[in-house]
Amino acid sequence: MVPPAGLKALRGFPVAGVASGRCLLMGILNVTPDSFSDGRQYLAPDDAVVHGLDLAAAGADLVDVGGESTRPGAVRVTEQEELRRVVPVIGALVASGVRVSIDTMRSRVAEAAVNAGATVVNDVSGGMADPAMAATVAGLDVAYVAMHWRAHSRTMQQFAAYSDVVEEVRAELVQRMDVLTAAGVDPGRIVLDPGLGFAKEAPHNWALLRGLDRILDIGQPVLIGASRKGFLGRLAHEAYGALPAPADRDGMTSAITALAASGGATCVRVHDVRSSRDAVTVAAAWQPRP
């Protein structure tokens, strides 16, 4: 279930699902040529808008629009290119009544996206990639997702070293909270993400999922983003002897959605909304009734 502070900390998120105890669904819309799962599929603005509308129709509470891939090894795009990719798509989706979040590490992109109608800034760097992000978010009336992050995609796996990944990620998220709030970000707008796959190897990801309660202990809503990631493909390969393509990992993603929702996650970020919608519905029904 959502932590007691959840409703306050989700200003900018759609709260109807939260109020009912249901985990929220953030549908992934990559307007990129190089994302690991769906790169190039929605690079054309019209295609991106159609897919965003489909995600919303399938049950997404938010459509998360991103114009820069953050897969391992990805090379950064320019700010101008990122803006060109995302702003028209956000404007069109918002005009169609879709609630949108912007997936960006750049403060200027975040501000432009909010001006276009986005209500959430989803920053995989937690404000570390752009020193101006915290002050920018502090001045915007939106929710802010701060993910655990150690380095940009090109080099991040060089930093996947932990003695106790759960406690170290927890401590680093608390440090980010301190930095963000010192810069003026309202803690009532911050959602935390342990950053599965970002400077993490497969065992680290599983440890963080098993240790979700320790991340929740920080007292902020938590977002989980496991959708189609490589550690799921590795699990399938170990179990079945075949490595599924990213799009064939939605069953495993839905299992994580159900477990994360039952464990107290406030939101999951997924490619296939329909299967995860079913998972959060079952998880909510499974919870004890007051």
What can you tell me about this protein's structure?
The chain is α/β, with parallel strands linked by helices and 290 residues long. It has helices at 6-9, 15-19, 45-58, 79-95, 107-115, 133-138, 165-182, 202-210, 212-216, 230-240, 250-263, 273-286, and strands at residues 24-30, 62-66, 100-103, 120-123, 143-147, 190-193, 223-224, 267-270. Strand 2 (62-66), helix 4 (79-95) and strand 3 (100-103) form a beta-alpha-beta unit. Helix 11 (250-263) runs parallel beside helix 12. The radius of gyration is 17 Å and the shape is globular. The N and C termini lie close together (12 Å).
Give a brief outline of the structure.
With 290 residues, the chain is of the alpha/beta class.
Q: What descriptive keywords fit this protein?
A:
eight-stranded parallel beta sheet; 290 residues; alpha/beta
